[in-house]
Design a protein that fits this description.
Metal Transport, Frataxin, Chain A, single chain, 3 helices, alpha+beta
């Protein structure tokens, strides 16, 4: 995980939750952690990390992630064994 991925990781786990994190940065962070991202139908993406699978919707038309999606990403990372 490089410095940019670490910055995104810290933002995802910040308290209070920060809105406005770019979804592309979250995807890059997951890949940097060793995860895989595959395209689903429409705006869906399937994310796999450490044997854990999740389906997320890319935000559109905006590029930033809403708080509810950030909570889901946090939960996914914890289930995959990645936490602060």
């Amino acid at each position: 995980m490089n410095a940019k991925h670490r910055k995104t990781f810290d933002a995802v786990f910040s308290s209070p939750i920060l809105a406005g994190i770019l979804w592309s940065d979250i995807e890059a962070m997951i890949v940097g952690l060793g995860g895989q991202i595959t395209e689903g139908r429409g705006s869906r993406v399937v994310v796999r990390l450490n044997g854990v699978r999740a389906v997320f919707h890319r935000p559109h038309p905006q590029k930033t992630t809403v708080i509810g999606a950030l909570k889901a990403v946090r939960r996914f990372l914890k289930e995959a064994g990645v936490n602060q």
